[in-house]
C-alpha cells in the first residue's frame, strides 16, 4: 500500500483559558492518513499527557517508535493534537521566563536571565484547567469528524490525557467509538467538579482557584530530571534502548522553540528546558467515572500500564496525588473493559522495548475490540506474553 499521507493542521479555536479568553488561537494537529483510496476514513485521535508534547509521545521519528505512523500503516486516519501550552500549539503566558515557578527560577540564570529573577510571576495563576482542555478536545474532535466525514472516532490517550479524554467521553459518548488509555493518571479522591459547580454544569471562566497553590502558569523540566525519573523504573535488562534519553530530549527540544534557549550553567550555551503548563484539573475520580453508566457500556475502554510504573500508582495517603490504575478499572461501570499490566515496562513505555507491543495491542483493539482473544477482564502479561487474570 501507499505510504500514509502526512498533513499538519493549525485548527482555530476560541480560547477559554483565562489568560487569553476569547482570543482565536491555533491548536496544532498532525494527521497521518493511511486510508486506502476509495475507502471510508476511520479516524483516531491521540492526546498527550502533562509534560511531553504529542509529537514526541506518538510521532517519534526514530527507528520503529512512531506509534501514530504504525497505526496509519494499519489503514487508520490518525490525528495527534496538542493542547494550548504544549508543543506547537499556542502557549499563552509561557514566552517570558519570569512566569516560571518561583522555585525554579535558579534554572534560568544565566540563560535567558543574566541575573536571577526574584520577583513574583508576571501572571499569577495556573494556565489551563479541565474545562479549557475539554473545550479544546471538542474543537479538534469536531474538526476531525467534519474533515473525515465520520460520525465517531477512537480516542487514545497517554498519562494525564485520561483527565481530558475520560470526562469528554462521558459527556459525548455518541462521538466516541472506543477509548484506549496508556498509563492513565487517575486520582480516586480527585476533585469531582470545578469550584461551585457540579460535573455536568457548564463552567463560567475564569474559575476562582486557590492562588497560593496555582500562582504561576508553567514549570520547566530538564534532561537530567527526565533521565532520573525514567531510571527509577528500569528493572529489566534492555528495558530501555541505549541512547533513548538523548533521542527523546532532542525531540522535546525540537518542539519547544523557546525552551531550547533556556537553562545551562554557561552564558550563551543553553542546554534547554522543557516548558510545562501548570494545570488545575477536576471531573475525573471514583464518583465521576461511573456517571450515566457510559464507560464500558456505550463506549468500550481498554487500559494498559507498565508493572514498574511508579507515576500512575502511588500511596493512598497522598490525597489528590493518590493515583491508581486498578481503581480506574474498578470504577468503570460497564462490562466492556479490558486492562493489562505489562511486565518490564514503566511510564515511558512508548520509548521502551515494549513500544512495539503497545502498537500491536492498540491496533488489535481498534480493529477487533479485543486483545489476545480477550474482550473483558484484567490481566498481568509476563515477559513471555503469558496472561494471568487479575480480577
TrEMBL record:
Residues covered by region (Disordered): 90-110
Pfam families in UniProt: Abhydrolase_1
Biased composition (Polar residues): 98-110
AB hydrolase-1 domain location: 43-351
InterPro entries membership: AB_hydrolase_1 (IPR000073), AB_hydrolase_fold (IPR029058)
UniProt GO molecular function: hydrolase activity
Keywords tagged on the record: Hydrolase
UniProt protein name: Alpha/beta fold hydrolase
Native species: Streptomyces roseoverticillatus
Amino acid at each position: 500500500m501507499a505510504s500514509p499521507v502526512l498533513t499538519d493542521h493549525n485548527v482555530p479555536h476560541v480560547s477559554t483559558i483565562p489568560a487569553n479568553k476569547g482570543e482565536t488561537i491555533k491548536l496544532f494537529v498532525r494527521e497521518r492518513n493511511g486510508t486506502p483510496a476509495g475507502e471510508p476514513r476511520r479516524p483516531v485521535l491521540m492526546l498527550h499527557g502533562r509534560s511531553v508534547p504529542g509529537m514526541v509521545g506518538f510521532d517519534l521519528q526514530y527507528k520503529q517508535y512512531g506509534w501514530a505512523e504504525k497505526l496509519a500503516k494499519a489503514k487508520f486516519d490518525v490525528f495527534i493534537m496538542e493542547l494550548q501550552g504544549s508543543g506547537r500549539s499556542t502557549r499563552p503566558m509561557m514566552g517570558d521566563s519570569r512566569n516560571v515557578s518561583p522555585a525554579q527560577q535558579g534554572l534560568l540564570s544565566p540563560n535567558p536571565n543574566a541575573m536571577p529573577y526574584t520577583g513574583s510571576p508576571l501572571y499569577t495563576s495556573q494556565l489551563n484547567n479541565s474545562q479549557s482542555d475539554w473545550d479544546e478536545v471538542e474543537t479538534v474532535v469536531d474538526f476531525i469528524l467534519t474533515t473525515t466525514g465520520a460520525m465517531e472516532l477512537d480516542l487514545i490517550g497517554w498519562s494525564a490525557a485520561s483527565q481530558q479524554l475520560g470526562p469528554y467521553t462521558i459527556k459525548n459518548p455518541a462521538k466516541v467509538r472506543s477509548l484506549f488509555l496508556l498509563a492513565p493518571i487517575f486520582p480516586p479522591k480527585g476533585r469531582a467538579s470545578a469550584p461551585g459547580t457540579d460535573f455536568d454544569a457548564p463552567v463560567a471562566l475564569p474559575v476562582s482557584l486557590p492562588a497560593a497553590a496555582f500562582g504561576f502558569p508553567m514549570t520547566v523540566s530538564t534532561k537530567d530530571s527526565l533521565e532520573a525519573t525514567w531510571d527509577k523504573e528500569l528493572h529489566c535488562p534492555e528495558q530501555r534502548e541505549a541512547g533513548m534519553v538523548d533521542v527523546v530530549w532532542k525531540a522535546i527540544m525540537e518542539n519547544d522553540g523557546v525552551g531550547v534557549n533556556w537553562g545551562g550553567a554557561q552564558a550563551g550555551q543553553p542546554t534547554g528546558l522543557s516548558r510545562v503548563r501548570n494545570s488545575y484539573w477536576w471531573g475525573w475520580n471514583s464518583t465521576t467515572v461511573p456517571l450515566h453508566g457510559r464507560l464500558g457500556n456505550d463506549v468500550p475502554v481498554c487500559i494498559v500500564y507498565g508493572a514498574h510504573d511508579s507515576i500512575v500508582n502511588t500511596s493512598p495517603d497522598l490525597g489528590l496525588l493518590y493515583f491508581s490504575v486498578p481503581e480506574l478499572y474498578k470504577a468503570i461501570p460497564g462490562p466492556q473493559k479490558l486492562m493489562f499490566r505489562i511486565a518490564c515496562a514503566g511510564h515511558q513505555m512508548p520509548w521502551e522495548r515494549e513500544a512495539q507491543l503497545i502498537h500491536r495491542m492498540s491496533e488489535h483493539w481498534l480493529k477487533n475490540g479485543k486483545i489476545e482473544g480477550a474482550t473483558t477482564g484484567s490481566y498481568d502479561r509476563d515477559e513471555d506474553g503469558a496472561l494471568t487474570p487479575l480480577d
